[in-house]
Amino acid sequence: MNPHHRYLAAACGLWLSVSGCRCGMTGPAVGAPPAALAVADRPALLATLAAEAEREFFFAERGGAVAWVDQEGGASRVVLNGRAGKAYAAVGQIALSPDGRRSAHAALADGSWRMVVDGVEGKGYAELQGPVFSPDGTHLAYQARAGEAWHLVVDGTVSGPSRTPYQGPEFSADSSRIAFIADTDDRGFGRLVVSDLAFGSPQVVEPLAADLRSSDDRSGIAAIAASGQKGRALAVAFDRPDRARRGPVYDAIWTPVLGRGGAPLAYLAERGGQRLAVLDEQEEPLQAGEVFGHPVIRPGRKALGLIMLSGGSVVLHQAFAQGEKDGAPVESAESLSWSGDGNTFAYVAQRKDRWFLVAGGREGPTFDRAVAPRFSPDGRLLVYRARQDGKRFVVVADATGKTVRQHPAYQQVFQPQFTADGRSVAYGVKDGPQLRWVVEPL
Fold first, then answer.
1. Nearest Cα residue to 30 out of 266, 311, 307, 337
2. How much is the pLDDT for 27?
3. Cα separation of 280 and 432, whole Å?
4. Is pLDDT above 90 for 33?
5. Domain limits, the chain
6. What are the DSSP E strand ranges found in 138-189?
């Protein structure tokens, strides 16, 4: 494996994957960018299933829609809020705009793949990947292969060709620009481009870049730039792609992360056989052990949180944080996040087949499974999903991990979002045959 990427496969495969629709605890990973528009704050019955069957459900991030695929007689139909669409030989990934007002999916019709956007079929291609809606839901991007060439398609506008599938695209927070990597080589490096959505003014930021990743607030992107057989991290603001920041050259580099507002820039690196945690060009030797996932920048502090396998146990390590002790050893851990002020951290951990919340170093109650803790906007409370004895529900805890409230149980529970007033959480559920958007107080 390329030294620039050597830890990525283990990180993604071992610790960051959470079983999806099969166990009813689906949803985006913690740390997704905040909603640009308000979350639906009123409960709603979105659809009722005519018959039970094994399906994967997709709820719009902020409410308003749920979609799934029904199969019958060798044909597939996308069902949106209970209304079945046209039958196709096959359908691809479903995407819903964050507010649930728009939908898109690939469909195989007459021997070619077409993107079906809001029920309307697009041009036929040999292969499609995506789709991805912009944060405001008004724009749609996907990848399309015509012959041997790949293209990005944004709102029907087709980019120039790429020899290989793209890395990305990533939309900016205001939904006006995209970043992507094209024409990757056998190491995974290609042209890093930031462009307007019509591809009228694309700017090549770096000729050889990899591991494209947007900041949580989508103000910019981080990536790795090749420097011969070595590498360096770079940070690019969407609104100033001509002013990319580049870090020092290292023998190997991986998992670049860009903080909110375009700073700081953090990553892991190696020089002369020594592994390092790097934060805005400050270096700290990395203790022995395997690092899983991306480092998490502590808001308002010059510190990084790292989930590490060390001495046969998994621990939370805080780099650049003098006086902070490592977390208690556990068998597994994931979904590290910090409160907005950086005063408290949280993640979920496993010990002896039991999962629990760790908040500020204190452990909460145990469950068969717990996932995806998120801090409330004021940082006082946390919400996370849990499963116990086949029941799935949302738990509200204080900043010490103590349970404040346990919401009703359902067959499936999807990722909670905070309402605009910060007093409630809203999320999709499967409740018997009903697919509902529920709103519960914190």
1. 337
2. 35
3. 50
4. no
5. 31-161
6. 140-146, 149-154, 157-158, 167-171, 177-182
- Paired with 25 in beta bridges are none
> Residue 211: which of 187, 194, 230 has the closest Cα?
187
pLDDT in tens, 98-128: 999 999 999 999 999 999 999 999 999 999 9
Comparing C-alpha atoms, which of 263, 267, 272, 207 is closest to residue 240? 263
Q: Which residues contact 17 (CB under 8 A, 6 or more apart)?
A: none
| Cα separation, 303 vs 277, whole angstroms | 10
Flag whether pLDDT at 22 surpasses 50. no
Nearby residues of 405 by Cβ (< 8 Å), 6 or more positions away: 395, 396, 440, 441, 442
Chain centroid to CA 338: how far? 16
DSSP-assigned beta bridge partners for residue 193: 180, 204
The tokens for 275 are: 């592994």
Residue 376, C-beta contacts closer than 8 angstroms, at least 6 positions apart: 382, 383, 418, 422, 442
CA-based radius of gyration for the chain: 22
- Residue 80 token pair: 């949106």
Cβ-proximal residues to 133 (8 Å cutoff; 6+ apart), any chain: 95, 96, 97, 98, 102, 104, 139, 140
Nearest-angstrom CA–CA distance, 252 and 238 = 26
In angstroms, rounded to a whole number, what is the distance separating the alpha carbons of residues 391 and 408?
A: 9
Plot region of 156 (φ>0 → left; ψ -120 to 50 → alpha; else → beta): left
Q: Which of 283, 407, 422, 251 is nearest to 339 (CA)?
A: 422
299 close to 305: Cβ distance less than 8 angstroms? no
Which residues are CB-contacts of 247 (< 8 A; sequence separation ≥ 6)? 232, 233, 234, 265, 267, 278, 281
Tens digit of pLDDT for each residue in 395-430?
999 999 999 999 999 999 999 999 999 999 999 999
Inform me whether the pLDDT recorded for 232 exceeds 60. yes
Comparing CA positions, the residue from 30, 91, 83, 81 lying closest to residue 59 is 81
Rounded CA-CA distance 155/161 in Å is 17
Q: What is the pLDDT of residue 10?
A: 29
Please state the separation of Cα 274 from the chain's center in Å.
Answer: 30
Find out whether 281 and 248 touch, Cβ atoms under 8 Å: yes
